[in-house]
Amino acid sequence: MMSQTFRWFMNRGIYMRRLGDERTYSAHIDGIDEVSLVMLSAGEIPRELAAGRLHFGVTGTDLVYEKLPCRESHVESVIELGFGRASLVLAVPDFWIDVDTLDDLDDVAADFRARSGMRLRIATGYPLLVREFLNKAGVADYALVDSQGATEGTIKNEVAEAIADITSTGETLRANSLRILSDGLILDSQATLWRSCVAHFDRGETTVASDFLSRLKI
Amino acid sequence: MPSRADIFVEANRLLQCFETAGAEIVETSILQPADVFLDLYGEDIRARAYTTADALRGEQMLRPDFTVPIALMHIKNARRQSRYTYSGEVFRRQEHNALRENEYLQVGYEVFSVSDEVASDAEVFALFAQVLAPFDLKPKTGDMGILTAAVRSLKTTEQRKSALMRHIWRPKRFREILNRYAGRTPISDYQAALITRDVANLDFPEFGLRRRQEVYDRIERLRQDNDTVPISEIEMTVLERLLEIKATAPVAIERLLDIAKDLPALSSSIERLRLRIDTFDAGGIDVETLAFEACYGRAKMEYYDGFIFEFMSETYDDLPPVATGGRYDALMRRLGAGSEISAVGGVIRPSLILEVSQ
To answer: Which of A164-173, B20-29, B43-52, B295-304 shows the lowest per-residue confidence on average (mean pLDDT)?
Structure first.
């Protein structure tokens, strides 16, 4: 995501570059010394924005939505950057031909629980978003299983019966004989520039921020 | 905001009231095993309760309510009859509303018995009415038993009834399913194709715990369900009239009796309601103005399955109810109690008493 972010800013006349070799995490913006560029893992940026330790940050919609339940009071979206597009989707094995919608999934969950005594398990790294989504749809009798990678393999390994994961092309899902439910789109995500609503902007920082945004023609 | 010290003083006063009324004071741990709550409420409880864990005891929850630990304690005590009172903190995650408290005191009173259900309903309600009398609160009552009796009486398959019962606490979903069973919403094109085509030869690979046979079995069930006679418009109208009831107790009973003419299966649960209201009346409660809603309490994720009540402030109507309670016999069954145990109780939030009496 870093190189795409650099390219996006470069196309708008802001030149960001890494200092040192590709293993170092310090960076710089040419010509704007008042802005310090911090390189962080995309998953940590929501927290830093919400804590007010960053004024601006670039990260995916999915991570902000998952990590900040009260995001409206912590961050606001400045502009969507148009790359890093991916969707959080709910998927089941292809051979579950009887399951097309969340309504089917709910019915199957009840049946699965009656047969096995166990709640239907859904593996995901996005518990908050998935729980909210299923709650709104009235799906009951499921349990979430934490999965921080290789989520598509959890069903074969019998640690889950369905998954909710991020996909951009659907290729990995297809390769693992998984199919997205027809109403299984939880969230469309892309790289987005966020502003912290919590961070303090002193007079100098306010000027720098508006100068920075006007360079981006926002 | 009342101070913490004042809230503890008020909690203690309420605890004394309940003790004087004949309850035994009991304590429960703040850390509760998570599996009991997860089994009862499902994944949704994680959105409402704080979870923590250690390597030895596994996942635990900061007590999200007292009812479950008290009920388990009663089952373990193996007594026929008990009255318990308690005071302590409960913890609820509040991730969407910073104004709601995530930790607050509750003082409760629970009656477990094998005797007369109506008498214990009346005992609990009258006690709460008496304890809360100085605070100008308005009580509201309901009865989940009437709606469940109506669902059970529908002329349809057991499978459909159990699907409706399963979602009785989710009004929107309940309505969707009901509409489908009444033939008001057609089945999807996908499902229509699924039940008409031959699916014996599937070349998708089979994996995971849910087996291919379960897929076939469900398709067969869908086929049978599709051939089921829809729930009649007459029954739908009766259910709708029932769900709309929002009146004073005497008027509500009149309307229910009227509905029972079309749905005789409701008679015994209406009779129980009438008996309860009569017992309230005999106990000095003003039943003429007592609010009754047939589907009150349904939208909250709770375990009450019979009589339900709350006490709200009309002046401070943005506050949550000061007291809530009800009957939870089904919860007792699920926790492993014998079928004869009847359970009813309620809780008061002392902080809210202080807020409404300012």
So the answer is: B295-304
pTM of this prediction? Answer: 0.89
Mutate to test the interface with B, among A68, A72, A97, A103 (most CBs of B within 10 A): A97
Distance, CA of B239 to CA of B241 (rounded, Å)? 5
CA distance A54 to A48: 6
Closest CA–CA distance from residue A87 to any residue of chain B (Å): 23
Reported as type and span, the H/E element at residue B82 is strand B82-91
Instruction: Report the alpha-carbon distance of residue B48 to residue B211 in Å, rounded.
Output: 33
Burial grade of B58 (CB within 10 A; 0-12, 13-18, 19 or more)? exposed
Closest to A162 measured CA to CA, from A112, A87, A128, A115: A112
List, for residues B95-153, the tens digit of each pLDDT value: 777 788 999 999 999 999 987 889 999 999 999 999 999 999 999 999 999 999 999 99
Do residues A152 and A174 touch, judged by C-beta distance below 8 A?
A: no
Give contacts of B210 with chain A, Cβ < 8 Å. Answer: 93, 96, 108, 112, 120, 161
- Tokens of residue A123, six digits: 């593996």
The whole-chain average pLDDT of chain A stands at 93
Using CA atoms, how far apart are residues A99 and A101, in angstroms rounded to an integer?
6
Among the ranges given (A158-172, B128-142, B184-198), the one the predictor scored with the smallest mean pLDDT: B184-198
Give the B-side interface with A, CB within 8 Å: 38, 42-44, 46-47, 95-96, 98, 163, 166-167, 170, 172-173, 176, 188, 190-191, 194, 199, 202, 204-210, 212, 214-215, 218-219, 222
Q: What is the pLDDT of residue A17?
A: 86
State how far the alpha carbon of B28 is from the alpha carbons of A42, B31, B63, B66, in Å: 42, 9, 9, 8
* Run of H or E including B282: helix B267-282
Distances (CA, A) of A69 to A75, A189, B27, B92, B94: 11, 16, 34, 15, 10
> Taking 60 as the threshold, does the pLDDT of residue A13 lie above it?
yes
The predicted pLDDT at position B253 comes to 96
Which pLDDT tens digit goes with each residue over B51-90? Answer: 999 999 999 999 999 999 999 999 998 888 899 999 999 9
How far apart (Å, rounded) are the C-alpha atoms in residues B26 and B9? Answer: 18
Contacts of B15 (CB under 8 A, 6+ apart): B25, B85, B86, B87, B107
- Closest by Cα among B296, B295, B302, B298 to B48: B302
CA distance B142 to chain A (A): 23
Q: Report the amino acid identity of residue B25.
A: I
What's the confidence (pLDDT) of residue B301? 53
CA dihedral A6, A10, A15, A21 (to 10 degrees): 40
Across A83-112, average pLDDT: 96
Which residue, among B210, B220, B334, would best test binding to A if mutated, counting the most A CBs under 10 Å from its CB?
B210
Query: Which positions in chain B touch A141 (Cβ < 8 Å)?
Result: 42, 166
